[in-house]
Amino acid sequence: MCARERRAPPPLTPPWTLSALLLALAAPWAAGTGALTYPWRDVETREWLVCSQCPPGTFVQQPCRRDSPTTCGACPPRHYTQFWNYLERCRYCNVICGEREEEARPCEPTHNRACRCRPGFFAHAGFCLEHEPCPPGSGVTVPGTPSQNTQCQPCGPGTFSARSSSSERCQPHRNCSALGLALNVPGSPSHDALCTSCVGFPLSTAEPGAPGAEECERALIDFVAFQDLSFKRFLRLWHALAGPEAPGPVPPREGRVELQLKLRQQLLELREARAGALAGRLLRALREARLPGLERSVRARFWAH
What we know:
Blueprint: H1 15-33, E1 37-41, E2 48-52, E3 58-62, E4 71-74, E5 79-80, E6 91-92, E7 101-105, E8 114-117, E9 121-124, E10 127-130, E11 138-142, E12 151-154, E13 159-160, E14 171-172, E15 182-185, E16 194-196, H2 213-225, H3 231-242, H4 256-273, H5 278-288, H6 292-302
Antiparallel strand pairs: 1-2, 3-4, 5-6, 7-8, 9-10, 11-12, 13-14, 15-16
């Protein structure tokens, strides 16, 4: 058990007499040495003495006598005293770091062990909680620290964040014209601007494997998957593409961004399954999903006029 600091015993003489005596004895010694003192009654002579306290990292090994000063001993391993004291033994380093903590300061003779939350966690109400990631469309403004959660902010115009992250800031949209490419899909807070080298390609007459066909099919997939549509409309398109005869996997429920990525993967798999059939299958699915506006945009952008 940790030792408690010793208090002076009840006086055997009137309080004002003992107080005056201790002050008179302690003042010259404390003023001359700068050391802190404490009252001690000699067990042999029964007289009251003013003994020097021991500095941090030590304890009172032997109290002072009339003819000898206090003897201080160094704290043994895994023990400490943080302040000037008159303890009979050093305190035990009793702080143990938890599962999500790391040692910020080791146990040393002058202080107890100190812990902090490991990287990726922060302290809250006595627990280490994981830093929350900023969702797609928001970027990190202040990274999380051992004492503070991640600070997020929605991406402003011209910037985006495409995934959940506890470290990434909003990034500027790609400049397609500077890269010598055409803008396929404008950037949004949750995805980058999508560029393409496919311009005016008539998918209705293209032969599978024809020059530029693969690039234009990729552009078509991105154009559809990253439209600014509601979750419900994307879900209708998802089911229309899967078809009643071959229902696809249950779509994700995390949100629209996740569904867009799944829809893009679904379209890529359709393209790989049957060369040259993507465009026709997609147009039928758009009609079944009751998305006439998007169907017109696809025809105007990728179909022969």
